[in-house]
Amino acid sequence: MATENLISISSLFEAHLTVSELDRAVAFYRDQLALPLAHIFPERKVAFFWVGAPGKAMLGLWEAGTMPINLSLHVAFQVALPDLHEAPARLQKAGIQPRDLAGLPTDEVIVLAWMPAASVYFRDPDNNLLEFISNVAGCAEARSRRTSLE
Question: What pTM was estimated for this model as a whole?
């Protein structure tokens, strides 16, 4: 076991998801989630989106070949708490079903008291699990809504 850090990691810059149809995935992330498109490499069947301000974080979408298995990955997007409270209704209005931790439909924000954070989960067209999350440390509302998720 290492006794000191090799390099101090400050944040996660980049994450990648596999998708079955790149054009459909680009439309979802660009038009539904309003992520700014950074670049598409059609010959490599990959698209990159900025998450937040350009240069701060990036999401890559890679078109996978036809496989007999499904792979579902997870990415969480940090959002402001007021926006998170509106997320279930906004997602439903856009035709996207918010989900709870068990994957069941919900219209409420989930409080993760152990973090502490609040989240809303949903799926992209390729069944990847996406999450809007907001840190609620010190937030009186989160303390009053503690759940069994500790």
Answer: 0.79
